[in-house]
TrEMBL record:
Protein's name according to its UniProt entry: Carboxynorspermidine/carboxyspermidine decarboxylase
Organism annotation: Nautilia profundicola (strain ATCC BAA-1463 / DSM 18972 / AmH)
UniProt keyword RNA-binding, yes or no: no
Binding positions (substrate): 235, 271
A Gene Ontology biological process term: nor-spermidine biosynthetic process
Organism lineage string: Bacteria, Pseudomonadati, Campylobacterota, Epsilonproteobacteria, Nautiliales
EC number, as in UniProt: 4.1.1.96
Protein's UniProt keywords contain Lyase: yes
Amino acid sequence: MNINTPAYVIEEKLLEKNLKVLDRVQKEADAKILVALKGYATWSTFDLLEKYLSGATASGLWEAKLANMKPWEVHTYCPAFKDSEIDEVADISHTVVFNSFNQLERFENRVKDKSLIGLRVNPGVSSSPVPLYDPCAPFSRLGIPKVNFKADKLKNVSGLHFHALCEQLDDALERTLEGFEKLYGEYLKDMEWVNFGGGHHITREGYDVEHLIEMIKAFRSRYPNIKDVYLEPGEAVGLNAGYLVAEVLDIIDNGMKIAILDTSAEAHMPDVLAMPYRPVVRGAGEPNEKKYTYRLGGVTCLAGDVIGDYSFDKPLEIGDKVIFEDMAIYTMVKNTAFNGIKLPDIIIKRKDGSIYKAREFHYEDFKNRLS
Ligand SMILES: Cc1ncc(COP(=O)(O)O)c(C=O)c1O
């Protein structure tokens, strides 16, 4: 593929493979799946997403507006809505989820005739691998803890929402659901819908989709009054459906061989440093597994802007392409132009094999974010 670098490439064929798995869950479990735009918001592919998913879930007004590009369900949850934005959020949302009884009491009358109202509750079951991604950690601000739950204030509330997982398999949902029902099961008899949040790695190899379907069915049979069961994964939608292509700009030897690329962990794949994790590089192995080992580094000034150490069968050369796998999720939505480096192009490989450059970024994009 002859493309300018850096570039994120999303392959529709791979995306559709994920969407088909998610659609199976929708159909067999009678559930609705929403794409979490915080994780995957590449709207050039919304036509494809729309064929399979029931809607999109937004983190606030701007994502809700993006979700509203399609006539699907728009669900909006925010840790705290602003007075100046809540009316527009309610106008375009099918469902608005509040994070506290303060927010519910402040805004419910402005929302109730336009959208369904939900509350995010905290199921109190920690299972995320690191505290940064654990909404059930002590003193968490995300989700109402049971001690603060006010059963007499639910007049306008039609559903409960929880989100406590991060890149997890079905067993983690089982534990979380158990905790959720123990704390909030008694209120579900008066609800019409429940949202199991995101963090379900449904499209990852090893995820027991059958078990997920069984769990949702069993939940439905325990609460026959619940009309809609929602899941809102971001990662599972775009998992392994895209990659980041970069080019080797220089090779130096400061005690070990270092390749400097026209990309950056900090700016273009921030979760590499935040999680942190070591992305898979196409054709490369662990350090010293293959003959030629290099540290792959970014082009910014940050000393820690290092993606990792990798080995290759052949020596790297200036101009070579390096491909980082699984870069469709939490990249385009989180990247920055730190150091004024160019944001990667967004390229879609269509199902028929054709290449479509959906977006190219220019100096003006960088300048216009500043003043
Ligand atoms: C409330 C909520 N819903 C959904 C998601 C999507 O999670 P994931 O992309 O891990 O599936 C998140 C992620 O942080 C979230 O906070």
